[in-house]
Design a protein that fits this description.
Elements (H helix, E strand, L loop, with lengths): L4 E8 L4 E9 L2 E7 L8 E4 L1 E6 L1 E2 L2 E2 L4 H12 L3 E9 L3 H14 L9 E2 L2 E4 L34 E6 L6 H10 L3 E4 L6 H9 L4 E2 L16 H7 L5 E3 L11 H7 L5 E3 L13 E4 L2 E6 L2 E4 L12 H11 L3 H16 L15 E4 L5 E6 L2 E4 L9
Parallel strand pairs: 1-4, 5-8, 8-9, 8-10, 10-11, 11-12, 12-13, 14-15
Antiparallel strand pairs: 1-2, 2-3, 4-19, 6-7, 16-17, 17-18, 19-20, 20-21
Helix pairs in contact: 4-5, 7-8
Bound molecules: zinc ion (ZN).
The site of zinc ion (ZN) has 6 residues, from loops.
């Protein structure tokens, strides 16, 4: 049904859960009304937004327009209604080609897929010492390049990861910020002072908190400590229970303001497939259960979850539902400056996810039209 009509259930609003109904007209939310009789209905959340995802369902964001189609469709069934296809560190020519490909694909992106909002480049201006599962051969220092080389990439370029302590990084953060590209600090060995300098230069987020970054040590605090201590910066969390142990979740939830936590999947193309071997940026990876690691050294290499798993994990962990929903939808959108969706409120795009009592996706509404949830439940994590 094109219009969507009226959706009843436990509506997860900005500051409370309200039994009620959402009236949808022409793909937009026309009204949100209280309805006490909906108190035992499904959970209704805003559609999820994944700003850091490399692939899904057997499709790699960097391969082709066809793989972008497949990735968008696979993500939608998991409740992801908007996303940023994300490149890993690669030669600049490849990143320029990726940018061209995503931009050319966006206007015709499938209606039955998650909607693209631009793209994310996770590198190449990262620390060679914290390259994680990216290919160290393609890491560059900002000081080595003329920033004009990046000008052809800027259109549609929404988010990137930079290590603030690397040569030329602060100037590049300023240059990108001025052009509207959001910088996230990460893949970094920054000292606390270097991390502060990166944020002061304009960086606003933190790439997969605790992973591939200097951490929390009582004498030598690094990027993770600064990211938690500063209320003004966003932090990404891969909430699969592997990238950040659950023992650390309370520390994150108590330190980060409700509007500064951002769930990301960091999903790779093996996610949502039965395959156990594949490659990430030219490096061989393997999947065992719900962990994806480099074959060479066993390091975690992206995840095989989508945001539905993050939402379920944090809901079951006891985080209140408005905060869960904000981290999955409103916060990532606020980070990249998209204002027409991501909350259940009149006037916004009708992107919704219906969850059952166990927080599994039942069905997904994208711009007023319903799509089915996943054929199989998300991996337990
Ligand atoms: Zn990543």
């Amino acid at each position: 049904m094109r219009d969507g009509g009226v959706i009843r259930g436990r509506l997860v609003l900005d500051d409370r859960v309200q039994p009620g109904r959402v009236v949808v007209e022409d793909g937009w939310i026309a009204a949100v009304e209280a309805d006490p009789s909906a108190a035992s209905g499904s959970w209704i959340l805003p559609g999820f937004v994944d700003v850091h995802v490399h692939g899904w369902g057997g499709h790699n964001a960097m391969h082709s327009a066809t793989s972008l189609d497949g990735m968008a469709r696979a993500l939608l069934h998991r409740g992801v209604t908007s996303f940023l296809p994300t490149a890993v560190t690669a030669p600049l020519d490849d990143l320029r080609a990726f940018a061209d490909r995503v931009r050319a694909w966006m206007p015709g992106a499938p209606e039955d897929g998650a909607a693209p909002l631009g793209f994310n480049l996770e590198g190449p201006f990262v620390s060679p010492q914290r390259v994680g599962a990216q290919n160290p051969a393609f890491v560059r220092a900002a000081a080595e390049i003329a920033f004009a080389e990046l000008e052809p990439i800027v259109d549609g370029f929404r988010l990137t990861t930079i290590a603030p302590e690397t040569p030329g990084a602060i100037e590049l953060i300023r240059w990108l910020t001025k052009r509207g590209v959001v910088v996230s600090l990460g893949h970094s060995v920054a000292t606390a002072a270097e991390a502060h300098a990166g944020y002061e230069a304009g960086a606003r987020s933190t790439t997969h908190l605790f992973n591939a970054m200097s951490g929390i040590h009582q004498h030598t605090p690094g990027l993770a400590a600064v990211a938690l201590a500063r209320d003004d910066v966003y932090t990404e969390l891969i909430a699969d229970g592997h990238h950040v142990d659950r023992e650390l979740w309370p520390l994150i939830l108590r330190t980060k303001p409700a509007d500064r936590l951002v769930f990301v999947s960091d999903g790779v193309d093996l996610a949502g497939t039965p395959q156990e071997r594949g490659s990430l940026g030219g490096l061989e990876v393997q999947v065992q259960g719900d962990r994806c690691t480099l074959v060479s050294n066993g390091a975690l290499a992206g995840s095989v979850i989508a945001l539905d798993t993050s939402v379920r994990n944090l809901a079951l962990f006891g985080l209140d539902m408005p905060r869960v929903a904000a981290a999955a939808s409103a916060n990532p959108l606020a980070l990249i400056g998209v204002t027409d969706r991501g909350r259940i409120a009149a006037g916004l795009r009708a992107d919704l996810v219906e969850l059952d009592d166990a927080f599994n996706v039942r069905r997904v509404m994208r711009a007023g039209r319903w799509y089915s949830g996943p054929a199989v439940a998300s991996p337990a994590a």
